[in-house]
Amino acid sequence: MPNSVSAKKSLRQNQKRRAQNRQQRSRLRTALKKFRTLMQETPARADADKALSQVTKVIDQAAAKRLIHRNTASRTKSRLAALKKSVCS
After folding, report:
1. pTM for the model
2. Between 30 and 88, whose confidence is greater?
3. ∠ CA 37-38-42 to the nearest 5 degrees?
């Protein structure tokens, strides 16, 4: 347990940030899983394009909040686009 006032405040801030990070990470993972399961069902081209844009938005938001590194975000988007291309061609 923290003793000083500043340590108590820091603990509160860390708990709040941890909760927000867990929520964002869960949102990111859910979006990725939804996209990958959709790709296994060989969707229509329009559905695939819409799903890719949605998951790309979630990835970009996670990178902007520094939940994941920007290079990781870029690599993930590239792999998902390649997956969509291979499924929808």
Report:
1. 0.89
2. 30
3. 115
